[in-house]
Amino acid sequence: MSSCHAAPTPVLTAPAGTSGPSERTSVLLVGNPNVGKSSLFNVMTGSRQSVMNAPGTTVELQLGTWRTPDGAVDIVDLPGTYSLIARSPDEQVVADALNGTVPGVGGVDAVAVVVLDATALARSLYLLAQVVRTGRPVVAAVTMLDVAREHGSPLEIRRLAELVGVPVVGLDPRRASEVTRLAHAVAAVAADEPTGLPGVTTEPHLSAGDHHDPERLEAHLADAEVLFTWVESVLTALEPTPPVRVTRTDRVDRALLNPVLGVPVFLALMWCLFQLTTSVAAPVMGLVGGWVNGPAADAVAALLHPWAPHWLEGLLVDGVVAGVGTVLTFVPLMAIMYAALALLEDSGYMARAAFVADRAMRAIGLDGRAMLPLIIGFGCNVPALAATKTLPDSRQRLLTGLLVPWTTCAARLTVYILIAGAFFGDHAGTAIFAMYVLSLVLVVGGGWVLRRTVFRGVQREPLVLVLPAYQRPHVATIAKSVANRVWAFASKAGRIIVLTLTVVWLLMSIPAVAGHPVGDVPVQDSVYGRVAEGVAPAFAPAGMADWHVTAALATGFVAKEVVVGSLAQSYAVTETTGSAQSHELGAGLRATLDATSGGHGGAAAMAFMVFVLGYTPCVAALAEQRRRFGVRWTASAVGVQLAVAWLLAVGVFQVGRLL
Amino acid sequence: MHLGSCVVGQDVEVLEVSTAPGARLRMREVGLRTGAVVRVTQHGPFGGRVVAVGGSRIAVDAATAAGISVRPWRSEPVGALVGAVVGAAAVAASVRP
Does the pTM of the predicted model rise above 0.80? Predict the structure, then answer.
């Protein structure tokens, strides 16, 4: 496996409501991408779902419990794949799971339910043949039967079952009633001895799919040829393939994939997505934040005030409640983001977006789909990291996830506006624009460096992308998927956010000098202030060795929105919204940076902005990175971001003071 | 001729797929293999092509499309008829004094 696999803590517990090893049937859900596998999984399991990473990888698996008339069944929804000869870590997990070598996933007796697409039967049958040859019990579930009928190629299920030698169930994966028939088929096949592939006697070539080893490649090609022949024989025995027809999808693609219109349409959709995660989400986030920090915090304070000591009230209200409030403010944003992504995926446009953006992203060594999270990142890095889930290859997800923090989010803009306004007067706009240019340079440059270092193994492959037919998104399925994903974010990333904010409150509340009670300490006399003072000399080469600055940067680790508030607090400016107060804060900052930079305040201010762009965006982004890529990658990313931010800040200051 | 030079709506037979070794098997797995009859259904941005392989649609980039050699394809009855007419004309020409 590639060196870029993370090793997050594997969660091997069974999903909620399941027991340990028992007589219960297990099912592995397998299929090509976009065959309706996830819709089927959602209908089977309802809300009885959980998520785990396959051990030793960042590949996400959905686990669930399926309550059937024949008893409860444990299901694992495996990533979509075209083949068990893997070409990505995600596909390798599918192959390993079906070969029974992934601990805690399926086991050797698990029934494989292979979802077949009636409109692309050849491709589906090839995967079915590979799964049957693993020797485990198999049931085939055929979707898209109505579309195949519309295209003039109705499928005879009974005939197909005779030809492939395993039970076949035709169903609409979004209808619960039809799924019951699948349950009966699974129960029946679980009790039977598995049969081989009719008419195929050769043994499968099971070695890992290293396509760059000519010997292995030839063996895989020869093995695949046997299966292609088998697939052809099945297709020939079924109805003859009708001629290609112009479908509704083709007509829509004439506009959406038009050589001239395709890119503007894509950019317009990305603009809508950006607006959704910024302009639309902001008021809702503000409402939630206002409610938590207002009435909810007041209510908790009122409950605690009569009996609790001052420090405990501060800890619970300003630490824990504020932390929970931060998580809750992200909930509407994440819900909007997940709904938009599900809509794009469910409708069939996501694959087209990858096709349209491929050329631009290929230039920096990324998958076309990476364009989407990178654009969203300019609004907020947290949903952008969540959006990396749309990339089909875990190495590409990780690579993109490491670059997202360098897209300059809207929260950083508040800092740029304050600093640029205070130092650059009429040229403030140019200074802010330079930050956006630098952000693009960091993303492109970072991608270039990563592709030549830790991601050397990720080969640049030709684009061969299966485009699913357009379909009307199913609201209930999307709602269920959004609810599950938002809950996963709130419960996993949320814990880290609340914990971090509580620790920060503690550091700011514990006095470093005598004479102050706990919970009522000026920042410079707190442990936090002393740490900021201790760190300040490290910023001398960047011209900003002052505790006001380093304390604000340390607070910015929590969230960039609070950098301005932190500066205002340290300069004892109560509000930052009025122009007089902004002026006062600006004057304080100018005096500080002029003093620390030897009279080159402008260069130090630019260095400060560059550092804000380059280092860790916020604790919520950190928590989301950790949830997706594990502790090791997140810690390494933080280290690299701090180092790059410092080097750039020093470089900008040193060059700037010569000008 | 190659896939990138086909007009929209043209049915062609794949003669050879020349691509990076790592992608050879995947191309075959999605249906782009020698002997397959495909139709170009859309010209995409930056020279990309969408081809119909049976009921499914496959998008390939410009470089990949240029690496897929094809020839025009006619359905067998028409092809046989054309072949018969051409053959008969050749025979007639050869026996003419």
Answer: no
